């Protein structure tokens, strides 16, 4: 069938399916970090199922360093499976990777929802929760990489829809939290409803994936042999790069690799291709993009070192009431996700500084100022540092700038990286940037333990 005779996506069902799959891939991480107050409440008292979704006025103690461990054990699987990608993809069928990962995530999230009703002492509850977080994020890493492999054979608009679904996952989790809190139900029932929500989302993702084999449009593209898919990618990935620059590039290693491919319009701007010494393409590419890669590492190092480990501990300085109850879900999680998405979207209007500017490292390094700023906000549980910024307005202002700068600088670095290498080097550049992105996430999660200890 010629390309001009390709079937149509009736009722946009394939687009809706991939949007839902994109949403489902990042729901686990976002639902776990948004529910930090619930887990802290469960870990604060023995044999209690009364963990609440909201922080109280003084803020629950971060027993077991839960904030730090949930961040670290969410990001380490991304780094690990980034390194294992080639082995997994060559030896495990695609359908097994995708459907198996979705079913495993659904099972583990169901376990998390069931535990809401189970009386359990803090130690075993912490161990089970940490194991669930590790395995859920491991399966999520495999799932994302496998789905991006499928998207490579589809028109680039479907990759954009998938990325949009992922970008909305954080906002969706924050809104689910607020609705559960505002429902008026008791703490246990509210928490149960909250954790059932991602189970429904994952179940919908499974149904969407199974439906693809029954849709002619999906069968036409997904059934292509590798040689056909490679030819089609030459056309679609250039469009994808432009779409990512307009819509922003979400923050996961698998998403990063997609932006580092072909851009025929820029080919004439690249220097003439030079022969490379055998065995040294990685070193040659790294020498060209090392500064951009370092900037990417530093952006995520700063972000994950305080979000959510420190920011989730900040409480309102006002008297107890509705505002203090909703303060952290709104001003930490919802505000971060909305402004981060806005920051990524800014690259559709301008790309500044450009790839040759030394201002980019300066802007990235300035973000380290957010570490002491957040640590000096209104965090009641502290023993060393004073509270210099007690008013809520300080935290809100810091979070606005923190989230926008994170989204913009991540998107900017991922847009600039392909322009710094030759056309035939972009596959290697993509692999390198993918690794350094995961490295930045893991470094930030590890540093969060130190910053928490300094409070």
TrEMBL record:
The chain crosses the membrane at residues 12-39, 69-88, 95-116, 128-148, 160-179, 191-212, 289-314, 326-347, 359-381, 393-416, 428-451. Its main location: membrane. GO terms for cellular component: apical plasma membrane; basolateral plasma membrane. GO terms for biological process: adenosine transport; hypoxanthine transport; inosine transport; neurotransmitter uptake; thymine transport. Pfam families: Nucleoside_tran. It catalyses: guanosine(in) = guanosine(out); thymidine(in) = thymidine(out); uracil(in) = uracil(out); uridine(out) = uridine(in). It is found in: Apical cell membrane; Basolateral cell membrane. It is a multi-pass membrane protein. GO terms for molecular function: adenine transmembrane transporter activity; cytidine transmembrane transporter activity; guanine transmembrane transporter activity; neurotransmitter transmembrane transporter activity; purine nucleoside transmembrane transporter activity; uracil transmembrane transporter activity; uridine transmembrane transporter activity. Keywords: Cell membrane, Glycoprotein, Membrane, Phosphoprotein, Transmembrane, Transmembrane helix, Transport. Belongs to the SLC29A/ENT transporter (TC 2.A.57) family. Bidirectional uniporter involved in the facilitative transport of nucleosides and nucleobases, and contributes to maintaining their cellular homeostasis. Functions as a Na(+)-independent, passive transporter. Involved in the transport of nucleosides such as inosine, adenosine, uridine, thymidine, cytidine and guanosine. Also able to transport purine nucleobases (hypoxanthine, adenine, guanine) and pyrimidine nucleobases (thymine, uracil). Involved in nucleoside transport at basolateral membrane of kidney cells, allowing liver absorption of nucleoside metabolites. NCBIfam families: 2a57 (TIGR00939). PANTHER family: EQUILIBRATIVE NUCLEOSIDE TRANSPORTER (PTHR10332), EQUILIBRATIVE NUCLEOSIDE TRANSPORTER 2 (PTHR10332:SF8). This is Equilibrative nucleoside transporter 2. It comes from Loxodonta africana. The lineage of its organism: Eukaryota, Metazoa, Chordata, Craniata, Vertebrata.
């Amino acid at each position: 069938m010629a390309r001009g005779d390709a079937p149509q996506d009736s009722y946009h069902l394939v687009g809706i399916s991939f949007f839902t799959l994109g949403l489902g891939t990042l729901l686990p991480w976002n639902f776990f970090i948004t529910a930090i107050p619930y887990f802290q409440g469960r870990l604060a008292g023995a044999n209690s199922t009364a963990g609440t979704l909201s922080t109280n006025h003084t803020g629950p103690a971060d027993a077991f360093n839960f904030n730090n461990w949930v961040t670290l054990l969410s990001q380490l699987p991304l780094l690990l499976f980034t390194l294992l990608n080639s082995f997994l993809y060559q030896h495990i069928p695609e359908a097994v990777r995708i459907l198996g990962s979705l079913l495993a995530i659904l099972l583990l999230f169901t376990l998390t929802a069931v535990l809401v009703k189970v009386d359990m002492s803090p130690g075993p509850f912490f161990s089970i929760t940490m194991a669930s977080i590790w395995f859920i994020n491991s399966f999520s890493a495999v799932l994302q990489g496998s789905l991006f492999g499928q998207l490579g054979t589809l028109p680039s608009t479907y990759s954009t829809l998938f990325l949009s679904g992922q970008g909305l996952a954080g906002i969706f989790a924050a809104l689910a939290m607020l609705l559960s809190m505002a429902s008026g139900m008791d703490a246990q029932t509210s928490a149960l409803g909250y954790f059932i929500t991602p189970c429904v989302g994952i179940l919908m993702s499974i149904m969407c994936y199974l439906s693809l084999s029954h849709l002619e449009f999906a069968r036409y593209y997904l059934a292509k042999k590798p040689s056909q898919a490679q030819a089609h990618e030459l056309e679609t990935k250039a469009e994808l790069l432009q779409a990512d620059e307009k819509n922003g590039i979400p923050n996961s290693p698998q998403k990063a690799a997609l932006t580092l491919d072909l851009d025929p319009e820029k080919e004439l701007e690249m220097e003439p291709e030079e022969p490379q010494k055998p065995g040294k393409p990685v070193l040659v590419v790294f020498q060209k993009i090392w500064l951009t890669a370092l900037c990417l590492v530093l952006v995520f190092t700063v972000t994950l070192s305080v979000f959510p480990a420190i920011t989730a501990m900040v409480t309102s300085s006002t008297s107890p009431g509705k505002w203090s109850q909703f303060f952290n879900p709104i001003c930490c999680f919802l505000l971060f996700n909305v402004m981060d998405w806005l920051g990524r979207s800014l690259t559709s209007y301008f790309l500044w500084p450009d790839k040759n500017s030394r201002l980019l490292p300066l802007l990235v390094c300035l973000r380290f100022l957010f570490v002491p700023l957040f640590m000096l906000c209104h965090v009641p549980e502290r023993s060393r540092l004073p509270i210099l910024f007690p008013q809520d307005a300080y935290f809100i202002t810091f979070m606005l700038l923190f989230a926008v700068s994170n989204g913009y600088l991540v998107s900017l670095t991922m847009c600039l990286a392909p322009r710094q290498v030759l056309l035939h080097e972009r596959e290697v550049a993509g692999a390198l940037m993918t690794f350094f992105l995961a490295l930045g996430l893991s470094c930030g999660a590890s540093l969060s333990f130190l910053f928490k200890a300094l409070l």
